[in-house]
Amino acid sequence: MEVVYPRCSGLDVHKRFVVACLSIIEKGQRHKELRQFSTMTNEILMMKEWLKASGCTHIAMESTGVYWKPIFHLLEGEIEAVLVNAQHMKAVPGRKTDVKDAEWIADLLQHGLLKASFIPGESSTRPCAI
Prior knowledge:
Blueprint: E1 7-13, E2 17-26, E3 29-38, H1 41-53, E4 58-63, H2 68-75, E5 80-84, H3 86-89, H4 98-110
Parallel strand pairs: 1-4, 4-5
Antiparallel strand pairs: 1-2, 2-3
Helix pairs in contact: 1-2
């Protein structure tokens, strides 16, 4: 399959922690690095700096509920981030751990196989003037 994003990351987001899989393809070889971060702001910022320093250009995250919001907003504007529907990701059998989920998300993103969920912008939440 064609590689769309040679340096990207998959995030499996939970209430108290995030599992991140950084996937880099160089010279035809894939290198994966896995790390776990808490969802406290200082740790999310450490994750962002690690991803930026690694040259990560795109991130896809899976989250049940609203746990993705602070992570998305702290990454927004510096790394291209997309939220993917957890139900679409769970359609694939055999992934039973957070690490495998993060790796799977990174792999699908790397090959351009994920569809981003709609996230309304700030302007869509403001009342309309008639």
